[in-house]
Amino acid sequence: MRRLLACLLLAILLLAAFVIAGWHEATRVPVVVRYDVAVPKWPVGQAPLRIVQLSDTHAGLPDMPIDRLYAIIAQANALKPDLIVLTGDYQGEKLFVSTPTNLDKVVKPFRALRSRLGTFAVRGNHDDAFWSPIVLPRYRMTYLRNRWADAGPIIIAGVDDLTTGSPNVAAALAGIPPGKPVILLMHEPDNFVQVPASVALTLAGHTHGGQMSWPLIGAPWIGTEFGREHRRGLFVEGGRRLIVSSGVGTTTVPIRLGVPPEIVLITLHGWSLTRSAGSPGPTDNARRYRN
Predict the structure, then answer these.
(1) Domain that holds residue 59
(2) Fewer C-beta neighbours within 10 Å, C or N terminus of the chain?
(3) How many domains does the chain have?
(4) pLDDT, tens digit, for every residue of 127-176?
(5) What's the Cα-to-Cα distance from 250 to each of 42, 64, 253, 261, 265, rounded to whole Å?
(6) What is the CATH number of the domain that holds 27?
């Protein structure tokens, strides 16, 4: 009997330690993950561009109250981006939290984002398909659903959500004039297999980096059929580049383990900065973390 009670107490202590550690990591200040990416068709004389990617904010209780979302937005603004991209899942979904999340309420803080060239957004599988094209533009965002927009020195294109919508990569890229690099936004990375080599860089989220990555076994859930190895980071395949962000929020349970919340900062430039400046080679999956 004493041994059983001791085992039960140990199990409770281990569970408590896991929950405390997971909550701490889920609610910590996001790390800033920095990438240098060289692309073709860079405009002559154009300085490098700083692009901030925010993904999977999942606003809502208990781990992403609106005041924390405002703090993350302030952190993003402090990076002084030229351009900001949002790759979906603004609404939250947690077990045992029955209060529905209002899209207008959770998108409103994004009006505080500041960048020289603006904010561009796609929706995720948790975001209301009817209200997204109505609400997002209301708060200083260019909403991209299977279409593109001219962002000055570059083109930003975006596709609809894969799980709840009708993504069309070809439609998103149709009619883009030659001469500018194209950045493509999507929520799930699965659509990367359809992206042509003419796209300079694809940005995605959705996977949360697995949200919980266990020692030895890794992340049991990644939310994509594209491949477990594509759960987080920079990937170069056939000359095409993909960055998958683990995002800043959580889904189902407010816990992260071994996968900190992150803000992605991309320095986009021409080939003239060479690989010594950090441009990815054909097999580079390297990433760098900064607090």
Answers:
(1) 2-290
(2) N
(3) 1
(4) 999 999 999 999 999 999 999 999 999 999 999 999 999 999 999 999 99
(5) 36, 8, 7, 9, 20
(6) 3.60.21
